[in-house]
Amino acid sequence: MNPTTTRVAAPVATDSGADIQDWRPEDDNYWNTTGKRIAYRNLWISIPALLCGFAVWGMWGIITVQMLNLGFPFTQAELFTLTAIAGISGATMRIPASFLIRMAGGRNTIFLTTAMLLAPAIGTGVALQHKDWPLWAFQLMALWSGVGGGNFASSMSNISTFFPKRLQGTALGLNAGLGNFGVTTMQIVIPLVMTVSVFGWLGFGGEPMLLVKDSGWIFGKIKAGTPTWIQNAGFAWVLSLVPLSLLCWLGMNNLKSVTPAAGSPLVAFGKITYLYSLAFIPSIGMLYLYLPAPTGLGLLNMWVAIPLDIIAALGMMKLAAFGAMRENVSKQFAIFSNKHTWSMTALYVVTFGSFIGFSMALPLAITVIFGFQHIPDASGVLQHTLKNPNAPSALTWAWIGPFVGAAVRPIGGWISDKVGGSIVTQVISAVMVVASAAVGNVLMQAYGSATPEQYFGSFMGLMVLLFAASGVGNGSTFRSVGVIFDRQQAGPVLGWTSAVAAYGAFIAPVLIGQQVKAGTPQLAFYGFAVFYAVCLVLNWWFYLRRGAEIKNP
To answer: Which among 89, 445, 498, 526 is least buried, having the fewest CB atoms inside 10 angstroms?
Structure first.
């Protein structure tokens, strides 16, 4: 009997339990006889769990539009802060989440972080029944929704440990791409469930509110005066989160070769809860310094607040870790001494940062830019307050871009496995430079027109192109990470790059909101185009030029 066959027999028995002692995906014999079945089972459970995480994190992009339609007493700028708060919270949560798999185990982490989503889902449903509640109550729920954003880092880190390097692009593309459908699912499901009393038969569905402005869903407009159960935007996710949490617990595995010292499930849960709780502290602190009165002090601008938030989150993890956790954190901080961690971080901001940022900002941007007529007053100053009777509904159109971006993500991973990740990244970066500049030009015309709807077709076409390019690039950058870094560092790097890129969910709503308020929405997209061009050069320098240290990973 040859040695390979002898080694394969041992791990088969462990498949019946949650913990797998021996894991060798690069061993073809082991992979085909044992590993492949286990890896794909964990992947297929991970995908819907991640989908719900994206849905809960991103739901404020749709909720804010409906709050505006229902006459909640908040300004457009205040509503933009809700999507921004959810964005920065989710991004910050990804920093500790990127290290959780090595500390607590995959099964333990995915189960608990999926179950945690029940809290913001139920809390948001309760808050939305009270139009008279203060802004800070809704901001708190948006902050809490960031748990869903954090889950991406732990999910991707976990799946990366199950698959051989030759399948990294495909596996991670499937997990992230289908998981990203949470954004599209949310944008389709929420407008639908708000039209009916889903939970009325259980006695806690709450009373409807009447639309004061036209709303919509994927099949068209919903007229003002229609009863609407906005609270279902939160409550609806309970129906999937409860069975999904149980499925994670019963069907997923911890790899002991990756997490040798997770401890008992209760100990692992303690680590997860502790580190996630710590992540809220820098988020709250930075938001308090960033947001204007009465919510905060308004002392920092966005470009100062984000780096301070990242530094504070990392510093808190380093200082607050204790015992074996401290040693584990220190080992994983080694990724920051590798220059490729930083280059791949920038490139992932181009792809996923754009995808999640535009997903968060698009619904409200459609409403504000195309939902009003832009007419000069007697002194020639443009006014943006007169409702556009021919306005497209954001709830009818906003889902298309994220749907396309998520759908092509696995394709990006598959193509990158064939031709190399950096070539794909280079092509999509060039596309995004041109498309973003073109979006800026269209918005400049729309925001100065009494009939902005005439530019909406061009705007949506270009936005779908941006989403498609970012989706393909998501797959290519993750493939590159799987090749550049060894198995011990790839997971934390995946988590870290996704954490920084997730700040796109904060940057895009804030930047677009600021420029809309200033009357120059085009400048936001011109700025994005410049950033994409810089990263195009960065990708060429590190991975495509002659003499590059790592060629087309």
So the answer is: 445
